[in-house]
Amino acid sequence: MLIIVLIIIGCQSKKKKTVFDSPTNGNINISVDESFKPVIDEQIKMFEASYPNAKINVHYKPEAECLKDILMDSATRLVIVTRGLNSKEEHYFQDSMDYVPRWDKIATDAIAIVVNANSTDTIFTLKRLQDQLSGRMGKKETIIFDGLSATSIVRFATDSILKGRSFDTSVVKAVRGSKAVLNYVASDVNAIGLVGISWIGNPEDTAQVNMLKQVKIAFVQCDICPDSPYIKPNQLSILTKRYPLVRGLYYILKENYNGLGSGFVDFMQFERGQLIFKRAYMGSGKMGFAIRNVNINEKLVK
Known about the structure:
Layout: H1 2-13, E1 26-33, H2 37-50, E2 54-61, H3 63-72, E3 76-81, H4 87-97, E4 102-116, E5 123-124, H5 126-133, E6 142-145, H6 152-161, E7 172-174, H7 178-187, E8 191-196, H8 206-211, E9 215-217, E10 219-221, E11 230-231, H9 235-239, E12 246-253, H10 260-269, H11 271-279, E13 283-284
Parallel strand pairs: 1-2, 1-3, 5-10, 6-7, 6-8
Antiparallel strand pairs: 3-12, 4-8, 4-9, 4-12, 4-13, 10-11
């Protein structure tokens, strides 16, 4: 009798784990960098409309918390952040799970500098940003971030603007999220905010158009532009990196089978998803959108 029980248990242990989702069906949790909320909301809305049996539960968080989720939380299969895995993280997954999660770049983002609509201070250089963030330009103006630690914009400012140096905490202020950054700048003429372009760059989004009545996007010096020394972030300047404050948008997918996470990633990488990034005025990461000079000769119909 004992032998029979052991055989039954042994057979059960060899059964494959049941998979409850597919690329177009199921229910998963994902964590996403909060600075990309507007465009990822649109991606999920279109994906779920196309596949009614799919449900994506999105949790918007600072980037560091998203990365912690993919490393430590077994329920989180996908994160969308501004970097891929480093070699140490890849080795961790290989040792602990016997495979490395798939990751890649899916779009290019720009960090917009926003000032109050009544401000006349709309010209920036990277040197000026370095001096302001480090406190060398005085304390009249306050730099507003979506958090003093753990967010991707704070990391970008530390790594790419300050080159590893520290903030002067007396000239920077942390608020909770990108929307709060815009609201703060709208209420204070001496405030300068940093937000992802998908929060403020879409002229087809009514809420963003209304916000642009209260704040405005500043110009940043372009060191490689023969025609204009200062430019704003737009798709041309992002794709050509003429606008200096650009960063990638990446997915990290912890799924070693063709499940719902894979389906959503493929949606974002292919035509419809890439067009959603384009409509959000970000740069495409997977599709080539041609840039052409066009002369239009058209008579107005009276």
